[in-house]
Amino acid sequence: MDLENILKLTQNIRLVGASKYVDGVTIKNFYKLGIKEFGENRIQALKTKKEELDKENLNIKWHFIGNLQSNKINLLIRQKPHLWQSCNGIKIAKLVDKKLDYTLDTLLEINIAKEDSKQGIQPDKALEEYLQIQEECPRLNLCGIMCMASHSDDKKQIAKDFEQAYKIYENLKKYKATICSMGMSNDFEIAIKCGSNMVRLGSILFK
């Protein structure tokens, strides 16, 4: 799929370029083509690319989308990301909140596929955990959810995962949730049909 079609498919939602495998020059080129939000899986890579591109005066909105290790919390906070997408529960939320001196927009990561290889809170605990984080972590501005579907070629299973995640998101709307981040390169079209308003695209963009 070419960029024009990707942009057409995502014109009504937010497209985050998952830039894990590309350099600053590539990010700059895609920024010029209209993609303004980029997500990194590793804090050090986010720091390096952010510092490089800050010199270009680009108004990039950086997202952190990877698993946050406790020894990397200070480094994350110093980057002041636009959105931390991968808060996977109250434990890490409290550790981050304790060190923040500003408000950080955050998504609760849900392990909707219930796979051991994936991070995130179990779906049946999501509402309870979301409200606990809101209550106990005043410097985290929880504004929605993030998830990854099952590692499968079964489109019905993927759609089922996204539908379940969207139901959780719908239940959280009354608690100020506005972002439903689901869908990656191999399944973003299904995610959009299931209600996603933010997708994270890597390989399909950066071929």
From TrEMBL:
InterPro entries attached to this UniProt entry = Ala_racemase_N, PLP-binding_barrel, PyrdxlP_homeostasis
Occurrences of domain Alanine racemase N-terminal (ranges): 31-206
Tell me one Pfam family matched here. Ala_racemase_N
Cofactor(s) in the UniProt record = pyridoxal 5'-phosphate
Any one Gene Ontology molecular-function term assigned to this protein's record: pyridoxal phosphate binding
Q: Kindly list any coiled-coil regions of this protein.
A: none
- At what positions is N6-(pyridoxal phosphate)lysine found? K20
Keyword annotations? Pyridoxal phosphate
Its family remark reads: Belongs to the pyridoxal phosphate-binding protein YggS/PROSC family.
Any idea what job this protein has?
Answer: Pyridoxal 5'-phosphate (PLP)-binding protein, which is involved in PLP homeostasis.
UniProt xrefs under NCBIfam families: YggS family pyridoxal phosphate-dependent enzyme
Tell me the protein's name: Pyridoxal phosphate homeostasis protein
